[in-house]
Automatic annotation (TrEMBL):
InterPro entries: Glyas_Bleomycin-R_OHBP_Dase, MMCE/EMCE_epimerase, VOC_core. Keywords: Metal-binding. It comes from Peterkaempfera bronchialis. One of its GO terms (molecular function) is methylmalonyl-CoA epimerase activity. This is VOC domain-containing protein. The keyword Metal-binding applies. Residues 16-154, 178-304 form the VOC domain. It comes from the Bacteria. SUPFAM superfamilies: Glyoxalase/Bleomycin resistance protein/Dihydroxybiphenyl dioxygenase. One of its GO terms (biological process) is L-methylmalonyl-CoA metabolic process.
Amino acid sequence: MNDESTSVAPVIRPGYFHRLAIACGAGQQMDSWLRNVLGARPLTSRIRQVHGLPMHQPGAGASDESGAVSEMLWLGGIPVALLTATDGDGPLGRYVARYGTGLHSVAWTVEDLWAAETLLRRRGVRITGVDVPGRHFFMHPADTSGLLVEWSDTDFADDPRDGGALPEVPAPLVDVRSVAWLTVTVRDARAAAELLASLMEATAVRGNPVGDPEHEDTVDLRIGDVVVRLVSPRSTRSRYAAAVEQHGERLHAMCLRVDDLDGTLATLEREGLHVTAREGCRAWTDPAATLGMPLEWTGRRGRG
């Protein structure tokens, strides 16, 4: 794969990033934590089918199929779906029991859902979780280097990226400027990048801070309007080695960009959110202090 294309023409041209799903258990108060600490805002825009058909309101209630309640939020310039398990024996409840609170999946909008599904099947990608009323489906993560990807032909009628208004909220503990990247732990970052770029349009991103190449290989891909970081440990000294060993390839963490990394880390420590490590303009907080969710931090444009 080079910076612009892959040798195999990609199947899908992603539109806007549709949502990052965060899975959590009942009673964790993840909603209030995301709002009070990171400044997440309610995303109340109605959802519509991209060709104009009406859709349900976001976060309208519980899904009997997944045993979860969903709520849409806006965080760091992207939509976030907070999925709270209501049934410990349901699919989401089992997921949280196995992996704990954390990132669940990603989704992009496409213009033609039927064509996307058909072409992916022709490439040998297994399709799962087809939801006709919800107008979405997933690619099986075993065929995408562990990244659970949803495709939907729906979008937000009043998308903040197109000028849609967001409610005013009290000043949070941390002023998050953007989601810098989403970290996926894989066994071979180069092979995973080639695979993903063969399925969806993606371009390599240069210039973000990365770990020591002796201990881990890193590839950043821009897919639609977000950056997906693929990291494969080369030694046990990589901080991602344990994640791959314990859970295999999967969506692992979210990196948040702030204007003042030094000041942000000092604030987090003061409020009991322990910073476990820092390498230049990157830092990591203890998941135990962030309700189990792995978070990474970086300065504005990669500066501290």
